[in-house]
Amino acid sequence: MQATTLVPRTADLFNQGLELKTGAALLRFGAARQHPSDRISWTGHGAVAWLDGSRGHMWSVGEPDAAAGLVLRAALGRPDQVREFTGPRGTEALTGRLLPVTDVVEWVFRWTLEEPPVQRAEERVVVLDESHHEELLAFLNIHSPAHSTGPGSADVSLWAGIRDPDGRLVACGALSSLRDSGAPLMASVATDASQRGQGLGAALTSWLTRYAVRRYGFCTLWQLADNAPAERLYTRLGFRNEDPCVSARFVAP
């Protein structure tokens, strides 16, 4: 593993040109170029990292070996602040050689700059406001209990849904944002289990993607690595698949 020297907290995450390389979209879209006054960040040879202090979550981008070096230095130097991390695939194994990790989840950070092809049933999508939050929460609790974002989240700018002819909610999804940069992040897309196979998830995902691209110029999302149906859908809608990531937590002493 590469030896890495931690630099002051004013480190410029963009001084290596990593954001221009394949596999570094999380840096390009996820870290604001304007340096927040309270952001703690590090750079090394072949990797950069920054800390979401409110969550105790460290983000790293670059070569796995170099990224793991930054994660380890930060975790050992700030054990009360660095409780979990996301990095390029392989970071968890390298980090785990020195510090035990748990709850390992493999993800893909996906993104697109293009509007997707129009999907069947896309015209049925409607915007949902605060008056629908209770309905949305009940729907998500039944059809997507592990949803990443819920109604009322401060990061969400838009909820959208699809209803059946009787007015019952049968699909929903949100546009949230990456905390540091504010980049649009699709989240909590869910479909009624009894309605699956009708293209409702594709319609909602396409509609949200189109909305984000028109308003912000791009759209991002997280996809679980072992979710084959989502893999096929996102690929069909034009989302790039170049950024395999892994997240994990450090085992509390």
TrEMBL record:
Q: Output the superkingdom of the source species.
A: Bacteria
Would I find Oxidoreductase among this entry's keywords?
no
Q: Give the originating organism.
A: Streptomyces sioyaensis
Name used for this protein in its record: GNAT family N-acetyltransferase
Annotated InterPro entries: Acyl_CoA_acyltransferase, GNAT_dom
Q: Which GO terms describe its molecular function?
A: acyltransferase activity, transferring groups other than amino-acyl groups
Quote the SUPFAM superfamilies the UniProt record gives.
Acyl-CoA N-acyltransferases (Nat)
Q: Which Pfam families match?
A: Acetyltransf_1 (PF00583)
Q: Which UniProt keywords apply?
A: Transferase
Gene3D superfamilies (UniProt xref): 3.40.630.30
Domain called N-acetyltransferase: residue spans: 94-253
